[in-house]
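Much of what follows relies on a compact textual record of a protein's fold. A complete example follows; check for yourself that the lines match position by position.
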Amino acid sequence: MYLGCYISQDIFSQVFTYFIVFSLAYTAVVASNLLSIISIACIFGVLIGIFTISRFNPAIIYRFSVALFSIGILGFLIAYGIPNANRLWLLSLSGFVSGLGRGALAYIPWNIYSFIPDVDELVTGKRREGIFAGIMTFTRKSTQAVAVFLVGILLDHSGFIAKASVQSASVTHTIVLIMTIGTFSFLIMGVIASFKFCLTKETHQLLIETIEEFRKNPTYQMDEQTATCLKQLTGWDQQYLWGNNNVIFKGKTTEKAEQN
């Protein structure tokens, strides 16, 4: 989910100005104005994320945000297909809708992050927020660099000429393909991952209660329903939770795990 939403936005941002200037033949001023609309909409998108994610399943809000972003991109694609019409109203509307989706998508992964160390604590018995924050930041920077690099290669291969006021048809088509297929590919990847995301408000509360029980009694035995629910979150049977595994220390096996 994290990679899907952020890489898709990296790809979109990398080619959007080119799309407006070269594919639609507008000026850089128009592109700047549309980017401003998107940025303003992102603020409202973040607010949507803030007020909805605590009330609904984060995966549902994620998919809703992807839908908004996708609708905006489809609007840009429609504008590309009607070259003889006045497209500014459609571009502005598409920019605002896509901005709502992008704003919410930017907020959701970092909101979810705050709960992931709780899942990890149930597995390892340790608090490792710093490690997760470091991994997320490193992954974000790395994938952003790779995405920008690959987009540059594709544009160069299509015949893109730097500082040219007009690009060839192959370049403009490549820009459109990158902005649509490239962006949609990673959005779809994120949506697929969201269907496997089981952490909700209710399951997180159950998770916290179980962690508290383990802190009081490391040999705590949960009921079958709780064990089944938490296995969906952690991927581990209850006898391997709370450090009874080799997640941190390779080869570690506790007496409890051996007995099972």
Observations:
- The longest helix spans residues 129-158.
- The CA atoms of residues 115 and 204 lie 8 Å apart.
- The chain has a mean pLDDT of 88.
- Residues 1-197 form a domain with the Growth Hormone; Chain: A; fold (CATH 1.20.1250.20).
